[in-house]
């Protein structure tokens, strides 16, 4: 059974009052975003929180984040939460560390430079146009489901070079993994023995088997077609100094990572953006009349509703954080959901105001980090912004959406803040 003992409290870093054994698990599990915002309001830029056997230090000071994301990045590995995604993502770019990460990042980087992704614009536009052609005014749609399908198609056609593989079960399988994953992080399962074969854990195993099979078919289809200039072809062709290529296992891990990281985040971002527009008709009309506003609208949506709402690191050695010696084994939490609504950097932080990005005032570099920062910044950053802008520019002049459910919709705070279940909207012709 996993040890339930957490590292001892850190002197001089504020902490809330906490229960024995559970620590802050109950309020955190109930509503993690609200809990973290409350902790920041009460205790400031550094606060320590215990979740059963993990001690977290939440860092909300952009200057200290420079230390976390840039200065000390070698001493900080992805945290215990990422570890839970390993059955799905294996040792792909999101979860790998050290030399393996460095090698794989070097291999993947050329496929994500602004120059290279400019080539994907036409494909992205064609996917969005197809999507628009299938939508009828006057009907009701599940916006999140639609955006997931659109962004899956875009990833497959750009990064995997237009392989025609049926991916219809993939969204549901990833949803299963993410739902169960959050139960592992936040629920009473923290108290269960590792590897205990519960019904949920068996469901995850089945979903991963389905995704493995899907990725195998994508790899086979790509090999059969011959190599192109897409990301996956580059990975297939890559050789290290000894002339050795990636093993099938490495290819599988990289493929599932790119597929998962490359669509759910963008689908979540587009869903929230259209919901924000649905509830801000003036902004919606301005965007429809001037599609160039797509970028500030997207930036503002990523500020208010960051799809990745927090990231974590675990100290591998003692790290100096603003004069505090943080020993090895502590989880550092970087909370986008807190940073992005900090009134020190954003006036009226809860308001949706795309204009704040038109001529932005000076603010610290790490006050706005929807894509993270430092060497492990999102490799798909430019890809996602281009994809989002193309979708907004093309869809907004044609349709407006009326939200039929609550805004924001109920969400599952997994790695992404993904909407829970359907997001119903009515489509209106502009
Ligand atoms: C709005 C969309 C997106 C958001 C908000 C987002 C956010 C993030 C964040 C915050 C990280 C850093 C994680 C950390 O440091 O712990 C990250 C990493 C990553 N993202 Fe994204 N992402 C998006 C789209 C994409 C796309 C489109 C792709 C691929 C096509 C992608 C692939 C990756 C990969 C592979 C990493 C790991 C990079 C590394 O560690 O070297 N992401 N993303």
Secondary structure topology:
Blueprint: H1 25-30, H2 32-43, E1 46-51, E2 54-59, H3 62-71, E3 76-78, H4 80-84, H5 86-89, H6 98-108, H7 114-118, H8 121-133, E4 140-142, H9 143-159, H10 170-186, H11 199-225, H12 231-237, H13 248-278, H14 281-289, H15 294-304, E5 311-315, E6 319-321, E7 324-326, E8 331-334, H16 336-339, H17 381-395, E9 399-403, E10 411-413, E11 417-419, E12 424-429
Parallel strand pairs: 2-8
Antiparallel strand pairs: 1-2, 3-5, 4-12, 5-8, 6-7, 9-12, 10-11
Helix pairs in contact: 8-9, 8-17, 9-13, 10-11, 11-13, 13-15, 13-17
Protoporphyrin IX containing FE is lined by residues 78, 93-94, 105, 159, 257-258, 261-262, 265-266, 269, 307-308, 311, 370-372, 376, 378-380, 383-384.
CATH class: Mainly Alpha
Low-confidence stretches: none
Order of the strands making up the biggest sheet: 1-2-8-5-3
Main sheet overview: 5 strands, mixed
Superfamily (CATH H level) name: Cytochrome P450
Radius of gyration: 22 Å
Element pattern in H and E:
HHEEHEHHHHHEHHHHHHHEEEEHHEEEE
Number of helices: 17
Portion in beta strands: 5-15%
Structural class comes to alpha+beta
Basic shape: globular
If you had to describe this structure to a student in words, what would you say it looks like?
- The chain is an alpha+beta fold and 430 residues long.
- It has a single domain, classed as Cytochrome p450 (Orthogonal Bundle).
- The chain is built from 17 helices and twelve strands.
- The strands form four sheets. Strands 1-2-8-5-3 form a five-stranded mixed β-sheet. A three-stranded antiparallel β-sheet has the order 4-12-9.
- A hairpin with a 3-residue loop joins strand 10 (411-413) and strand 11 (417-419).
- Helix 9 crosses helix 13 and helix 10 runs antiparallel to helix 11.
- The longest helix is centred in the middle third of the chain and has 31 residues, at 248-278.
- The N and C termini lie far apart (58 Å).
- The model has no long low-confidence stretch (mean pLDDT 90).
- The structure holds protoporphyrin IX containing FE.
- Protoporphyrin IX containing FE binds next to helix 13 and helix 17.
- Protoporphyrin IX containing FE (HEM) binds next to helix 13 and helix 17.
